[in-house]
Amino acid sequence: MNDLLRKFLGQFNRFKPSDIDLIIENTTIEFFKKGDFVVTEGQISDKCYLVLKGCLRQFKMIDGVEKTSGFFIEEMPLVIYSSYLDGKPSEFNIQCLEDTILVSGTREKELEMQLKSPILEHITLLIMVSDYRKAERYIALLNNYNPEERYLKFMKSNPNFLNRIPLVHIASYLSITPESLSRIRKRIVQK
């Protein structure tokens, strides 16, 4: 599995071989089965992750209903920032939708690595900015578009998700009912 991580990290021109070695030495590869929870609501999420293989979803229980707020697939970072950075209990669950392989690291190891290789601090900042932009796009999606437009935008920007994520979770993410999503999909096919 370290070969898979090495190959992934090797794509980035900014990493020297010594940076890649440092990351591999200070992270752990974890395996999860479909349905497993990586993080549960109320637990302190003291790890950051990178998805090597698999598909996961982030959700919160509200009045007994699961509200999905994110999906993660290969090569995507996965961090519950408020818990990871502040040591507070997570407000979210992270569940595997497929058998999953994650690279995990702790905040302590992250800070140690950044002292040894300043480029890692820069990369961490870039990841955080990217996640912030993703959150902004999601808020705009929910607030500025009707349900059909939300689904069309989701399809266009996330084609890799459509065959991997159950429609019930996509509907939840788009803040529509599964029945409404079914009608929307039917209308789109008829056009």
Automatic annotation (TrEMBL):
Q: Which organism is it from?
A: Flavobacterium anhuiense
* Name this protein carries in UniProt: cAMP-binding domain of CRP or a regulatory subunit of cAMP-dependent protein kinases
What superkingdom does the record give? Answer: Bacteria
Residues in a coiled coil are none
Q: Which Gene3D superfamilies does the record match to this protein?
A: Jelly Rolls
Q: Which residues form the Cyclic nucleotide-binding domain?
A: 11-57
